[in-house]
Amino acid sequence: ETGAPLRVRGVLLKKGGSRGSNRRNWTIRTFRLDPVKGSLAYYDAKNNLKGSVLLRPSSIVAAPDKVKLRGRHAPDNDGDAWYFELSNTLDDESKPRDVFALRATARREFDEWLVSLRTCIAALADVKPPPPSST
Description:
Structural class: alpha+beta
Distance between the termini: 39 Å
């Protein structure tokens, strides 16, 4: 869109899944976007793969106007949470996954991730299947 290179690696806060309780903590993860495969993998501090999200042509990147975050996750004084969600995605077993909630640590990173993810999704929608083989 802007001619700027895509953000394909960076640190984001990921909202964890609830395992038995309703508590979902935010965890710092390193993310890597593969625009060719349409995958967003995330790693822990020791660079161990923790999971991945497979984007689809129908995936949606949304940045809600209002976000209710409590405690230490509440927005700073400027009121900006840099929060966004991925929906209509698949997990690493190709099963549909719930909304994937993420937060950037700064406005620039937030903007770059939104553009990069939306560009990747648009490219997936433009991919044409290979022609049938003539064998």
